[in-house]
Amino acid sequence: MIKTVNRGWLKRQVEKGKMESLCNYSFDPMTDGIEYGDKKWRQARLQIRQYDENDKLVNDDWIEGMANFTDWDFHTKSGCAWQTEDGLIHLIIHSNESHTLRFKQN
Q1: Rounded CA separation 81/10 (Å)
Q2: Are strands 19-28 and 33-36 parallel, antiparallel or unpaired?
C-alpha cells in the first residue's frame, strides 16, 4: 500500500533532524548535466537562505556532505511525496529532482 505524505509534515521532520536522504537524481538545465545520487544516505537538513530587499542572496548556509533542502523544496506546485510499505518516503521536488527519505537509523 502506498500513502500520500504531507510535504509540510515532511519538512518539519527534516527541520527536527529526524530524516536521512538519498538523492535519486538532480538535473541542472543551466549546465545540461544530470547528477545521479552517490547512493549514500546523508543527514537531511533545512538550508536557510536570506535575501535582501532586491532579492539578492545575502546568506546561504549550505553544508558540504549533507542533504540540504530549502523551504521551497517542500512547496513546489509540481512536487509530491508518498510513502511505500517499506517505510521509505519518496519526494519529487519537481521534474528535475527526486529524493528518497527515511527516518534516521540508530
Answers
A1: 9
A2: antiparallel
Q: Which domain holds residue 78?
A: 3-103
User: In this structure, what C-alpha cell is assigned to residue 73?
Assistant: 523544496
Q: What are phi and psi of 56, to 5 degrees?
A: -90, 130
Determine if the pTM surpasses 0.70.
Answer: yes
Strand partners, 59: 50
Could you give the number of structural domains in the chain?
Answer: 1
**Of 96, 102, 99, which Cα lies nearest the Cα of 27?**
96
β-strands 42-46, 67-69: how paired? parallel
Do 100 and 94 form a contact (C-beta atoms < 8 A)?
Answer: no
Mean of per-residue pLDDT scores for the chain: 87
